[in-house]
Amino acid sequence: MKKIAYFSPLNPIRSGISDYSEDLLPELSKVYDVEVYVENGFQVENTNIKENFVIREYAEFSKRYNDKQYSAILYHMGNNYSAHKEIYEFILKYPGIVVLHDYSLHHFFAAKTLEQGNLDEYREEMLYCHGKEGLDEANRFLNGEISPIWESNSLKYPLNLRILDNSAGIIVHSQFAKDLLREQASYVPIEVVPIPAPHISKLEDIEREKEDARGELGINRDDFVISALGYANPTKRIDKVISALSVIKSKQFIKKFKFYIVGEVPPSYPIQELVRKHKLENEVVFIGYVNLKDFDKYIAASDMCVNLRYPTQGENSASLLKIMGRGKPVITTNIGSFSEFADDVVLKVNIGKDEISHLVEELVRIFRMDRSIISSKILELTNNNHTIEISCLKYSMFIDDIVRGNKVNINLGISSYLDRFTSIFDSIENDTGKTVELNISKIYKVFYKKTGDSYD
């Protein structure tokens, strides 16, 4: 059994990637001998992971890597700087397979550079990833001419090139992300591995599961329950949902409903004030952060969910797959990876001046429809494409292709060979040695900038 080193945030780091990894690791361990790496002194919260995996600290990795202990390294990389800052440094130093959970890493680099007061490092990253155009855009922002790039234009300036250049392969969760990466770096092997649903209900169990969950959570079984789940930042557009519900209440389209906001709300997002403004205090319930078990109960207790997202960083939503695994109708934003789901399975609204009116229409439509029909379609799609077994199979096939050398990052391969050749001439102090080294450098630059090879 091949041994792999596994780098990822884990709970108690509150991150969707922590939850994702804790769902994936038990299945992956059926195929590989997995050693999990964590920050020095970090205590893994999940008992199952703690008891069934070798947990090593970052400080142990270098020696074990040099001793060739691992067939592959698997890194999970996301936009949260505090959760991924050390993982990023390992990616650059020890190239491995990177699971890129967010196509754009602009938030990560803004925290890494600007929040630390290092403006020149931010400029340097924009230059490296996006050339003179990127540098000019960075200077426009720093001169106060435009709004923060990560809020307005992060898909155009994703700041991910350094990771692409230094990864043996990239795993993403959508064709949308893969297509964007292909335009940037055709020399990197890229694989789409859909996010799995950790639990998939049977159609005949949905109503029973709803009743049981409502009993445990103290939710009235006669209410029409709508839920938004996960960290409730402005990109989740919960303010738009509240505005739509205000219309629904005033026109009595749905006479008895509750809107549960299950997740932490940042102080900078004043949706409590919006609830008071629209006199929805009796309809909107703020739950705050909950553990994974209760998170799942709120999904089961719901009649439907909303999972809006704008702007996008090219990310996918693990909470969306949890919702789909429970067979719940869900409304998303018609953008990025969310657009890839069939319209009769995942309902969508467009961004723009009609967003709230479209939300009203879709919420009322779901309330009035025979929800068992759409639940059946949701569960069929989830079973066919998003089981943990399917996800793990795609992981193993890609990892094995990388290990066997069937798929190679050309940039890394050329760099390795050029390093060997240039080292030969390091000791030559005549014009011949300098000429050879100069020509090798030119060859590298041409290969690096012009290669069009791809690995589909």
Give the helix/strand layout.
Elements: E1 3-7, H1 16-28, E2 33-38, H2 47-52, E3 54-57, H3 61-66, E4 72-77, H4 81-93, E5 97-100, H5 106-112, H6 119-142, H7 149-152, H8 161-165, E6 169-172, H9 175-184, E7 190-192, H10 206-217, E8 224-229, H11 238-250, E9 257-262, H12 271-277, E10 284-286, H13 292-301, E11 304-307, H14 318-325, E12 330-333, E13 347-349, H15 355-368, H16 371-385, H17 388-404, H18 410-425, H19 431-450
Notes on the protein architecture:
This protein is of the alpha/beta class and about 450 residues long. It has three domains: about 5-105 and about 160-195 and about 390-405, 3-Layer(aba) Sandwich (Rossmann fold); about 205-380, 3-Layer(aba) Sandwich (Rossmann fold), CATH 3.40.50.2000; about 410-450. The chain is built from 19 helices and 13 strands. The strands form two sheets. It has a seven-stranded parallel beta sheet with strand order 3-2-1-4-5-6-7, with helices on both faces. Strands 10-9-8-11-12-13 form a six-stranded parallel beta sheet, sandwiched between helices. Helix 10 (about 205-215) crosses helix 13 (about 290-300). The radius of gyration is 24 Å and the shape is globular. Mean pLDDT is about 90; it is low at about 445-455. It holds the Pfam family Glycos_transf_1. It comes from Fontibacillus phaseoli. InterPro entries: Glyco_trans_1. GO terms for molecular function: glycosyltransferase activity. This is Glycosyltransferase involved in cell wall biosynthesis.
